[in-house]
Design goal:
Rossmann fold; 14 helices; binds NADPH dihydro-nicotinamide-adenine-dinucleotide phosphate; DNA binding; NADP binding; NAD(P)-dependent oxidoreductase; nucleosome binding; RedAm-like_C
């Protein structure tokens, strides 16, 4: 038994969400700023609303999935009264502070607010591997849990509406660092005419094996015991990163993807922490030296 849903924004992601709802038989109203994005959705049984106001009237759960924070305010501010008493879910990628601001705006207008971070691309919605991180109103999460689970695994992180975005961004930070390292590795091999596809096969296995070491790194970060039982110290790490920098220079490529990490390591060694664990870098990000 699901409540009717409204999807505001029919970009690639909004269309994927609305399609999934219709496939599961959820009553769905859709709206997009530029008309003409919804013929397939209408054919699948969705109601096309000509205005945001009419779209909001159609759903109990209103999902906003627009470009950014500014576009969300641009569309929702004029319909705040219409939203009163409804459940609002923001799936637009907004920063933690922007999510908190939206939550405060919603609270001031009597709107129950849940924020979400989508850990999937549109083609993954409703399929294996998709997950969405939520935080904010437990009422919205609990009331619509079955509906939300149609999209992917649904995990609730707590009442702070900024937490889902914080988790989302922490995961994306990890992901982009991995891609940056992969690009630098591929450029290094390209200097010897090795195609990136050959590199990818081996890099996938290596990254997967290394990913399994994250919990051990995390334990050291959490205890802050950077000088007991050090696995690899900062002096060792500095020499490894110096060698990678030299190899990049020799191959005529830039080492920029790794340079931020190398600078953090250099700074700690210069400050006399060479014997401390590499994991100390996580603490060094929060306090200088
Ligand atoms: P698209 O670029 O495909 O679509 C953007 C949507 O935003 C369109 O519907 C567009 O409307 C609308 N829009 C932009 N500005 C405004 C505005 N001022 N007023 C009203 N509508 C506006 O993006 P996606 O659908 O892919 O992404 C939507 C959100 O989902 C983003 O915040 C994105 O970060 C997030 N997301 C996307 C993922 C992905 O893989 N695609 C993954 C995780 C999150 P119009 O057609 O009129 O231009």
């Amino acid at each position: 038994n699901t409540h009717p849903v409204t999807v505001l924004g029919l970009g690639a992601m909004g269309r994927a969400l609305a399609h999934r709802f219709r496939t599961a038989g959820v009553a769905t109203t859709v709206w997009n700023r530029t008309p003409g994005k919804d013929p397939e959705l209408v054919a699948a049984g969705a109601v096309s609303a000509p205005t945001v106001t009419e779209a909001v009237r159609g759903g109990h759960l209103v999902i906003v999935v627009l470009l950014d924070h500014a576009s969300v305010h641009q569309q929702l501010d004029p319909v705040a009264t219409e939203l009163r008493g409804k459940h609002l879910l923001n799936l637009t990628s907004t920063s933690p502070e922007q999510s908190r601001e939206l939550a405060a705006w919603a609270a001031a207008h009597g709107i129950e607010f849940l924020d979400g971070g989508i850990m999937a691309v549109p083609s993954m919605i409703g399929a294996e591997g998709a997950s969405i991180l939520y935080s904010g109103s437990p009422t919205v999460f609990d009331t619509h849990r079955a509906t939300l689970e149609l999209l992917g695994a649904a995990d609730y992180f707590g009442t702070d509406p900024g937490l889902a975005a914080l988790w989302d961004f922490a995961l994306l930070t990890t992901m982009y660092a991995m891609f940056g390292g992969f690009f630098q590795g591929a450029a290094l091999l390209a200097s010897a005419d090795v195609p990136a596809t050959d590199f990818a096969a081996r890099a996938t296995a290596w990254v997967t094996a290394m990913a399994h070491t994250l919990p051990a790194y995390a334990r050291v970060i959490d205890t802050g015991a950077f000088t007991d039982e050090v696995f690899q110290d900062l002096t060792f790490t500095k020499s490894a990163l110096d060698a990678l920098r030299q190899a990049a220079t020799d191959a005529g490529i830039t080492a920029e993807p790794l340079s931020g990490l190398a600078a953090l390591v250099d700074r700690q060694v210069a400050a006399g922490h060479g014997a401390a664990a590499f994991e100390r870098t996580a603490a060094a990000l929060r306090t200088p030296h």
